[in-house]
Amino acid sequence: MHIPDNYLSPATCAVMGAAMAPVWAVAVRKVTREVDRARVPLLGIGAALSFLVMMFNVPLPGGTTGHAVGGTLLAIVLGPWSACISVSIALLVQALLFGDGGILAFGANCFNMAFIIPSLGYFLYRFISERARGRAGNYLGVAVGSYVGINIAALAAAIEFGLQPALAHTAAGQPLYCPYPLSISIPAMLVPHLAVAGLVEVAFTVAIVAFIRRVSPGMIRESTGKKVRWIYGVLVALVCLSPLGLLAAGTAWGEWGADEIAAVASGGSTLGYVPAGMRSGFSFEALLPDYTVKGLPDFAGYIVSAIAGAAILVILFRVVSVFGRKNGQRLRGGTP
């Protein structure tokens, strides 16, 4: 679901970035006003958790791959606006450091995964759990929210892909960017997510929510980081297991490189050409492309990437927490 650069036209990227700008503004304002500084490091832990979960690719029908996102989980635990910030920063680290998702397409990816999944997933979770009371009703809300959230996000990505042939093409009608129309992009994205990826998201979300409620029930929307040190063990376990994501062969639909898209068979035929916008479009060289480290085997590079990404996210939010605390003390006239 990570849209690479040059699959969406620059105009589409600009529109999606503009759509996310007020969402980020509201999210930052909400988090600043409503989240205690002691809880800010939890946003970093949540971002690291989402980052690591997205490294676990699973095979999907059609020979492609997909992954969970954890957006509904973070919305349940931290709140939807905090989840939006956490997933957005995780996506930024993925794009800048690992080349997973485009730089120009960052707004689109955040709209799909950091806005749609947490907000819709949380709404459905609350709507169902408040009406179907009890433990069973609560977990039904968790399951439905996480399943619908990731599938609507996949549908949004499919629409963004599928509109490109109509929005940007040569005089002869050849697409400049994503070459697949809605009739191909929607079933190609949505069917595998409905059949497999959505169920993976449900399993992950329900399992983690159940685990949290068992070992630290106060964590959900209430506790401080001091009460959830155990979650670092979860992050370490995910880092160690991250090479399992390499077992899923194939590339996620819509994430092929310009050097391979001409040979890709989608919609029953091989494309046979490289769209001009992809061939000569924006290029960015990530430090650790595709979670690899030069000179290391793939599994070792994956572990190093997992450690680097998770550590950056956790440390970043801790620094923000410390800076915010000192800044708040200054504003009150206190001593930092």
Write the topology of this structure.
Layout: H1 10-34, H2 40-53, E1 58-60, E2 64-66, H3 71-78, H4 80-98, H5 106-131, H6 135-162, H7 164-167, H8 182-215, H9 231-241, E3 265-266, E4 269-270, H10 276-279, H11 298-331
Antiparallel strand pairs: 1-2, 3-4
Helix pairs in contact: 1-4, 1-5, 2-4, 2-9, 2-11, 3-4, 3-5, 3-6, 3-8, 4-5, 4-11, 5-6, 6-8, 9-11
Quick take:
The protein has helices spanning 10-34, 40-53, 71-78, 80-98, 106-131, 135-162, 164-167, 182-215, 231-241, 276-279, 298-331, and strands at 58-60, 64-66, 265-266, 269-270. It is an all-alpha fold and 336 residues long.
Identify the notable features of this structure and list them briefly.
62% helix, two-stranded antiparallel sheet, single chain, 11 helices, globular, mainly alpha, Arp2/3 complex 21 kDa subunit ARPC3, 336 residues
